[in-house]
Amino acid sequence: MTYHNPPTPPRKSAIFDDVSLAEIRRAAATGIYDIRGGGTKKALPHFDDLLFLGASMSRYPLEGYRERCDTSVTLGTRFARKPLQLKIPVTIAGMSFGALSGPAKEALGRGATLSGTSTTTGDGGMTDEERGHSELLVYQYLPSRYGMNPKDLRRADAIEIVVGQGAKPGGGGMLLGQKISDRVAEMRTLPKGIDQRSACRHPDWTGPDDLEIKILELREITDWEKPIYIKIGGSRPYYDTALAVKAGADVVVVDGMQGGTAATQDVFIENVGLPTLACIRPAVEALQELGMHRKVQLVVSGGIRNGADVAKALALGADAVSIGTAALVALGDNDAKWEAEYNALGTTAGAYDDWHEGKDPAGITTQDPELAARLDPIAAGRRLANYLKVMTLEAQTIARACGHNHLHNLEPEDLVALTIEAAAMARVPLAGTGWIPGQTGL
Amino acid sequence: MPTFDLSQTPLRELNQALHGLAAGANDTEFEVVNPRGSHAVAVGCDAPVAVSIRGSVGYYCAGMNSAATVTVHGSAGPGVAENMMSGTVVVEGDASQYAGATGRGGLLVIKGNAASRCGISMKGIDIVVHGNIGHMSAFMGQSGNLVVLGDAGEALGDSLYEAKLFVRGSVKSLGADCVEKEMREEHLTLLAGLLERAGVTGVEPSEFRRYGSARKLYSFDIDNADAY
Ligand SMILES: Cc1cc2nc3c(=O)[nH]c(=O)nc-3n(C[C@H](O)[C@H](O)[C@H](O)COP(=O)(O)O)c2cc1C
């Protein structure tokens, strides 16, 4: 009798997987870290790990097309004389002119305006096009202060002081030379074509005590008219939210690590920060303890894709959400119709993230006039408005099923988690149990 | 001349009065007494008025100033004339950190000393300091001129872009990518003009040395990684 050893099939390492190996080789060949756009590509506990319970014996639902489910939200009710009245609780996040083309910024403004919501400037200042096409425009106040001036401050509808971003809490910005056109260079007071580093810390305040004075200054300059937001990257949401309230914020924006960026080191995107799901409850807890929940509004961002994500974020206590990546996709980013061109760039539709190189086939993350001309801002704005409408309808569908006549009436009690991790982060019970890891006993 | 006594009148009233003044308005001179270290005094001025502040102020005095001439007859806290667009701000005493931070235009004159990070991220402002300046001054300075009649602290001009730095005294150390540069005729002329505008007398442009960016960090290069 002969005995055959069964052959051992080739086995790839789960640790040294293809992506890790390729990155080692790339680093060895180039000597420079990988920079890219977008958010983390890791699978993290996310809104998908939560489910709504819907109505039952003890809760009655609302009728789909007949019974009203309100979606409006007012941001900036604490101190500002002119709070922002939004028709839907989904806003467009700050993305810079520079990272995005002029027509792309215009399209965001158009889409947001059609939907009754706000859009936001970014690291690079305000352009006339986006001001003109955005009924409600939030003006970012960033460490770089590129393009910052009192005229634009006064023609903004709100001011967002950016302390951090979820994709890179503690990191500054980067805009590589390829994207520094004459106009971008002029707005940022820098030579054309150089790699621009935006500072990671504000130049004239360092902590919550002097931020409070900075906010006083901004309020005095704008005669206490504008809501002032503070945007923080998901990091220490409980303390950061409490300190933002202490510093005088009208609105706190918490951006989780799934949040997109225009250009950051991959190692930063993938390894620094807290998942969005883990940010919301600590932030809400801080607001509740201070008696400020719903008085200082909470906006959550980072990986929001659809109406279910919106509903879940609101159920966990947010007042509104903000979208970046999804808005770009609605405009036309990573559309399969450009597949041949993505292939020529060594990638594929859905994976293209070299936004910093300025060669975007969809004409969105570029300053190349020919590529930028591919995006029709009117049609793209329309697509964004359609998408926002669908998101809102989806969130309303869920809220009605849970018996709520306003999206803000969604509750943590409406939710359960599919995984222990999500249950612990969202502080809702694991499905089918009463167990909230970290909060209740088994 | 309208006078605002900040021991009696809320700051809001002062700043509101200074905003949106109609062209040709009768009152073009304002006086502030008893500032007692108040923050955000005379911020966001947007008309060619003169504001005299009799005493010392806290943070961000004359922040984002456009067109106005603001004189502090005392010392100024952090961030005086931050993000100034145009006009003139004069501090008769000393200035704390971040004086003239991110300023885009106009002239800031500090008759005493300025603390650390003077002219940080400056974007076109001209700053003339009669005394000394502290460490990390003109960090990431993009444009404009910083003139120091005394000495400069450590890491002057770190990560400098195109701002021009002129120092008459010693420089404790230069920051990353900041180097001494040749003082050419055009710089002497520029400096003479700045000294005159700042009311400096008895000092010659030739007594200064010029510092600027070596421009080695302008494009990311792995072999410069130690400098970042
Ligand atoms: C192309 C792009 C540019 C961005 N630019 C900025 C910026 O200038 N300032 C800022 O605070 N955040 C910026 N962000 C982050 C967004 O404001 C927002 O936090 C993030 O996109 C939200 O996550 P999401 O992309 O998953 O929706 C940018 C994001 C993208 C995708």
Automatic annotation (TrEMBL), chain A:
Residues 78-405 form the Glutamate synthase domain. Belongs to the glutamate synthase family. The keyword Oxidoreductase applies. Gene3D superfamilies: Aldolase class I. Pfam families: Glu_synthase. Residues 108-129 are annotated as: Disordered. It comes from Jiella mangrovi. Residues 109-121 have a biased composition (Low complexity). This is FMN-binding glutamate synthase family protein. Coiled coil: none annotated.
Automatic annotation (TrEMBL), chain B:
CDD domains: GXGXG (cd00504). It comes from the Bacteria. PANTHER family: TUNGSTEN FORMYLMETHANOFURAN DEHYDROGENASE, SUBUNIT C (FWDC) (PTHR39673), TUNGSTEN-CONTAINING FORMYLMETHANOFURAN DEHYDROGENASE 2 SUBUNIT C (PTHR39673:SF5). InterPro entries: Glu_synth_asu_C_sf (IPR036485), Glu_synth_lsu_3 (IPR012061). This is Protein GlxC.
